[in-house]
Design goal:
The complex is a heterodimer of chains A (454) and B (162). Chain A is α+β, with helices and mostly antiparallel strands and 454 residues long. Chain A is built from 16 helices and 21 strands. In chain A, the strands form five sheets. In chain A, strands 14-13-12-18-17-16-15 form a seven-stranded antiparallel β-sheet. A four-stranded antiparallel β-sheet of chain A has the order 1-2-3-4.
């Protein structure tokens, strides 16, 4: 598989040159960085020239134009590369960049929440990698350092993590610099494909496409092929995202938390630092439920501030598709002591059927001393798990219809992420009880948590 | 029924009745902005009878807004418990928010020009999630300042990690 070929440098192969990374001297990123970043502009220029009728007929002008773009790109890229330096200071990573507008960014180690090594496709071709740091409260591409040799990126990451978790350089052995990994599970490609084929977006779009094809060819009834574009997108996009993007999804266990690796073209790595998990969402669409499949996503502090829209809404993937046993095993790793099956669930009262004729049967909540679990949805059943000591606020809501039926919603708010813990349509007495109990549990969890720290 | 959204074991502080006046003025301005041109246009281009009708509708909706605003203002209450701030509001759609002080990220005190002319301010407590809806409008500036200081003090004393 391409995963193995893409990673020639295993920890054993790379000699431990900690000193090279641990130095306090400013260092430059890899010289190919401007090319990896800017190749798109060159391709764009070629495309523009190819489109332009006038330029195509006068080849010499086209060549001069391309050369101009190329030389300009090389000069600008070279300048930007020359002026970009990174440096490890005793308590922060400092990145200077820009030649017209100088910019210095200092990322304090104690504010870095997670560090991942990412390899976009072109960078991967050259064996380069980008370091992505999630900084608390910081949004956007703030915490990026690109591009470094993969081995350097890994060493830098290991150094940063070791420093951030309070371990001094001296106490670290070279071989433990790169945290040892142990693969817990890999999602087979067959299952990713199966899960995509059974997803509602894919089925609906494929159905639409077939109908469109039949109606235009057989009945000669032209509704306009433009309608096919979103449908085609609906077929291709889930495959792209699930099968290509999550190709070879592997979960590793390492001393700095669970790590995931995925991707056929862009290799994405993500670390789930222990204690940063805010909540967890398990989604089980109708068709997947028949096979016992489900998807698990995590709310992680810091990831919500990432500029990747996809990650902002989806949090960190823990498992793109897995059966019950795999999910339970991973949940247990993420939140030790959590056993969803052992938590007693309280279903919603029967009169909720006036408001939710089908879904009322699936509404439930349950709690133990660590988490609150809510379940809802019958087309896509979503189980949210939130930790008591991460609870930000508790809200009670009631609309006029609910008031008549003596029902109320209880929201448990956690930092932004995919989880959405709402105990929908509870009996008012139950809701009041849950509200008080949640506040008590949160208070208690906080006290014990604080005691544990001090 | 009522104690669901306002548990009796804490002492609730109502917001200033001037909040109702402020909102009535806002409603009057809004209805005026829409109603006056509509009435004028109807009168000039159709019939002054329609203009009269429009004026009646505008007045009636203002009267309705008057009542709603009053009820809504009376529904706003907040309470400071030992560890949490409680805010409740709403008549038709009711809501009660419980925010532990330690979860506070920052406190905002805002006062728009209209609010200032009524001697009012709004205090909003922000946590790490935008879902938390802990906003208290209609506070006197003194009370807003007191609440702000108290919340930031308690927030610091009881701060939790993320």
């Amino acid at each position: 598989m391409s995963d193995e070929t893409a990673e020639p440098q295993q920890p054993a192969a790379s000699p431990p040159e900690i000193a090279a990374v641990g130095v306090l001297e400013p260092a430059r990123v890899h010289p190919l960085t401007p090319f990896v970043r800017g190749w798109g502009y060159f391709v764009g220029a070629v495309a523009v020239i190819a489109q332009n009728e006038g330029l195509r007929s006068e080849l010499s002008w086209a060549v001069i134009g391309l050369l101009g773009v190329f030389v300009g790109g090389v000069v600008l890229g070279g300048l930007s590369w020359w002026f970009t330096k990174y440096q490890l200071t005793p308590d922060a990573l400092r990145v200077d960049s820009g030649f017209l507008f100088r910019r210095t960014r200092i990322m304090r180690f104690d504010r870095i929440q997670a560090i991942d090594v990412a390899q976009p496709f072109v960078a991967r071709l050259f064996g380069l990698a980008e370091l992505r740091m999630d900084v608390a409260g910081g949004g956007g591409s703030d915490g990026r350092l690109s591009y470094l040799m993969l081995a350097d990126a890994r060493r830098l990451r290991a150094t940063l993590i070791a420093t951030a978790s309070g371990l001094t350089q001296e106490s670290m052995h070279p071989e433990t610099m790169e945290a040892p990994q142990q693969a817990l599970l890999t999602v087979p490609t067959k299952r990713l494909l199966g899960a995509t084929l059974l997803s509602s977006t894919f089925l609906a779009s494929a159905g639409g496409l077939i109908w469109l094809a039949v109606s235009t060819t057989v009945f000669d009834y032209h509704i306009g092929l433009v309608a096919g574009i979103p449908l085609l997108l609906g077929v291709v996009q889930p495959i792209w995202k699930q099968v290509i993007g999550n190709h070879g999804f592997t979960v590793y266990e390492s001393p700095d938390g669970l790590r995931t690796k995925r991707g056929l073209l862009d290799l994405q790595r993500q670390t789930v630092p222990p204690g940063r998990v805010q909540g967890l969402l398990i989604s089980e669409p109708l068709l997947w439920r028949l096979l016992g499949w489900g998807k698990a996503d995590l709310d992680i502090a810091g990831v919500a501030g990432s500029n990747d829209l996809d990650e902002m809404t989806n949090g960190a993937q823990l498992l793109p598709v897995g059966d019950r046993a795999e999910r339970a095993a991973l949940l247990h790793r993420v939140l030790p002591g959590l056993d969803l099956a052992a938590i007693e669930m309280h279903p919603a009262p029967e009169r909720v059927k006036w408001l939710r004729p089908v879904g009322w049967r699936y509404l439930a909540y349950g709690a133990d001393d660590q988490v609150l679990v809510t379940v809802r949805g019958w087309i896509n059943r979503r189980t949210s798990v939130v930790l008591h000591h991460k609870t930000q606020s508790v809200r009670l809501e009631q609309g006029p219809l609910q008031r008549r039926l003596r029902l109320a919603h209880v929201h448990v708010d956690t930092p932004t992420g995919p989880t959405d813990a709402v105990a929908l349509h509870r009996d008012v007495a139950d809701a009041a009880g849950l509200l008080a109990a949640q506040a008590d549990r949160a208070r208690h969890a906080r006290r014990t948590q604080n005691d544990g720290v001090s | 029924m009522n104690d669901l959204f306002a548990p009796a074991d804490v002492s609730w502080t109502p917001v200033s009745p001037r909040l109702a006046s402020l909102r009535r003025v806002t409603a009057a301005i809004l209805i005026g902005i829409v109603g006056v041109p509509v009435a004028l246009l109807l009168g000039l281009f159709a019939d002054w009878l329609y203009a009269g009708l429009a004026a009646v509708v505008a007045l009636a909706s203002f009267g309705w807004a008057w009542v709603l605003v009053g009820r809504n203002q009376r529904s706003w209450k907040y309470a400071e418990r030992e560890d949490e701030l409680l805010v409740t509001h709403g008549v038709m759609f009711r809501e009660l928010v419980v925010v532990p002080y330690g979860r506070m990220q920052f406190v905002d005190v805002t006062a728009g020009p209209l609010e200032r002319s009524f001697g009012l301010a709004t205090v909003e407590l922000h946590t790490a999630t935008p879902a938390t809806d802990a906003k208290i409008p209609g506070l006197t500036p003194d009370e807003a300042a007191r609440l702000r200081d108290r919340l930031s003090k308690l927030g610091q004393a009881q701060a939790w990690g993320l």
